[in-house]
Design goal:
This protein has one domain: Glutaredoxin (3-Layer(aba) Sandwich), CATH 3.40.30.10. 36% of the residues lie in helices and 21% in strands. The longest helix has 27 residues.
Length: 199
């Protein structure tokens, strides 16, 4: 009896280690593979990107909640704009690596009707606010302590790694997604393409 209990405990421990390794792999950049197969819908650059043809796009959920600064925010507040939604955590090294790029592209594209929104997940408020100060992040971030806001995208194009970036077109549909850390060239190109589309 004690021998079978030991086997069960060993199996449970191995399972826990495997889950932890898989979770950390997403944040460590393992999900940030580059593909040059443009014909397959991927865009070369930092993370792995997929672009959705306008005819195949699904409406993004109207994610709403409270920002790190305590303000109420909903994606529908930006109707008619392109929205760049970035899922991040202060504990995530690739998130720190891409933060300056996100802020730079956000500042550059705001006059073109592009709004950046962060989705701060599984984080502590003090650490997240320190992250924003460190990298000069000026756009708002919704608090998603338990990951429930992130799950709202399960029917469209889920941001299934941290970091992930979704680009929502002016009609409120998910147009592109980057899994893993993005680069300036990749993100600017995707945003420019979506912003140039007519409604």
């Amino acid at each position: 009896m004690s021998s079978s209990r030991g086997v069960r405990q060993t199996i449970a421990a191995v399972g826990l280690v495997a889950c932890t390794v898989l979770s950390l792999a997403a944040c460590s950049g393992a999900a940030a593979r580059t593909s040059s197969g443009d014909a397959q819908g991927f865009v070369s650059g930092g993370g792995t990107a997929v672009v959705i043809d306008p005819a195949d796009r699904v409406t993004a959920p109207d994610v709403k909640g409270v920002t790190l600064q305590g303000d109420s925010l909903s994606l529908s507040d930006f109707d008619g704009d392109v929205i760049v939604l970035n899922v991040w955590g202060s504990w995530c090294a690739p998130c720190r690596a891409e933060a300056p790029t996100l802020q730079e592209v956000a500042a550059k594209t705001r006059p073109d009707g592009v709004q950046f929104v962060g989705l701060n997940t599984r984080d502590q408020a003090a650490a997240a606010l320190a992250f924003e100060r460190r990298f000069g992040i000026e756009y708002p971030s919704l608090v998603d302590a338990d990951g429930q806001l992130q799950l709202a995208f399960s029917d469209s194009l889920p941001p299934s790694a941290i970091p992930s970036t979704l680009i929502i077109d002016r009609n409120g549909r998910v147009a592109a997604r980057v899994l893993g850390a993005t680069t300036y060239t990749q993100l600017q190109g995707l945003v420019d393409d979506v912003a140039a589309e007519t409604k």
